[in-house]
Amino acid sequence: MLSTTTESVPGREVVEVLGVVRGNTVRARNVGRDVTQSLRNLVGGELNSYTGLMTDARDEAEKRMQEEAEAVGADAVVNVRFTTSDVAQSAAEILAYGTAVRLADETTSDGAGEVTKSDDADRTDHPEE
């Protein structure tokens, strides 16, 4: 599933807008992680444990958004955005959302001005004799 932050897919025509799709997840920190990261916060530097937690949450939210897009028959999701919000003292929601679309078939020029469907599965190569 193709997803992009742009309004369209370069080189492809949007033929149908299927609507907004989304995916979300809520992740909570744990007490042990909070203690070690608090110590790291005192001396400075990246809070690697939290970075990993948020990366995993974004990946999961995007995956769920793409699954929803596939369920409605989309070829791509355009205008993808991410947002986050606190839902409890130690938990955050990550939300991924965008517009599910259907795209026109890819076409290419055959060099003689003819436009042909670009689908490798339909091609057969015949060696020149």
From TrEMBL:
Source superkingdom: Archaea
Biased composition, class Basic and acidic residues, residue ranges: 116-129
Pfam families the UniProt entry points to: YbjQ_1 (PF01906)
Ranges for region Disordered: 105-129
PANTHER family: UPF0145 PROTEIN SCO3412, UPF0145 PROTEIN YBJQ
Family that this chain belongs to: Belongs to the UPF0145 family.
Protein name stated in the entry: UPF0145 protein G3I44_07240
